[in-house]
Design goal:
Number of helices: 5
Radius of gyration: 20 Å
CATH architecture of the largest domain: Up-down Bundle
CATH topology of the largest domain: Four Helix Bundle (Hemerythrin (Met), subunit A)
Order of helices and strands: EEEEEHHHHH
Distance between the termini: 20 Å
Structural class: alpha+beta
Strand order of the largest sheet: 1-5-4-3-2
Length: 216
């Protein structure tokens, strides 16, 4: 997105009204319990888009957030500040089991449980590979299988092997093995983010674009 005027044009949520049911309170964690306290709009000069600036009040803890949002052709998207510091859920278009392990990896990073984060990242990776049809007796073989089929480009293959290697160290530790370094765990979970973005979020964005173009 190269302009805020493009918000909601290519991806986001169905409909032209703000999906407050998707907004999580950054203070108490309540989802979707909002009332609108203030609203302002700005219309695009010589265009059709409208940018919305809504102040929302949480019905649970009475805290406030600002939702900045805009609608395109059948979609809308938003940004909220402040945002939750705790990761509460995986994207809905990801397979449930993969999202569950990814969420645990994220929470283990937050809790500074570095070994556990690496193991959960490895599990999420392996589930994703199998979901995409990988075969092989080991995780290494499954990664190379998808790479040989052209599903994974070489850079994604290399990242996947990094997740596998660190996860293996934590899942099958030796008595003299050093603990997982904090930065290594953070890097591996970030690599997993890229992998799942490539595997699931990017295809969804492409499909949303094609759907929008087919009805234009």
């Amino acid at each position: 997105m190269d302009s805020w005027w493009s918000l909601g044009d290519w991806s986001g949520f169905r409909g032209s009204e703000l999906a407050t049911n998707e907004i999580v309170c950054p203070f108490c964690g309540e989802r979707g319990n909002w009332s609108a306290e203030f609203s302002a709009q700005k219309r695009q000069p010589n265009g059709y888009k409208i940018l919305h600036y809504d102040t929302l009040k949480c019905g649970s803890c009475a805290s406030f957030v600002q939702a900045f949002w805009s609608a395109g052709s059948g979609l809308h998207d938003f940004r909220v500040q402040p945002w939750p510091l705790k990761v509460c859920k995986a994207p809905e278009h990801w397979p449930e089991a993969i999202g569950r392990y990814w969420l645990q990896a994220k929470r283990n990073i937050k809790d500074e449980s570095w070994d556990a984060a690496a193991v959960m990242a490895r599990s999420a990776l392996q589930l994703s590979l199998r979901d995409q049809g990988a075969t092989g007796r080991t995780l290494q073989a499954e990664i190379d299988d998808l790479a040989s089929k052209g599903v994974l480009p070489s850079l994604m293959r290399d990242w996947a092997h990094e997740v596998r290697a660190l996860g293996n160290d934590s899942a099958h530790p030796a008595p003299s093995q050093a603990p997982t370094e904090a930065q290594d765990a953070r890097d591996i979970v970030q690599f997993l983010d890229f992998f799942l973005e490539y595997s699931y979020s990017l295809p969804k964005k492409i499909n949303d674009y094609r759907a929008r173009r087919s009805t234009a």
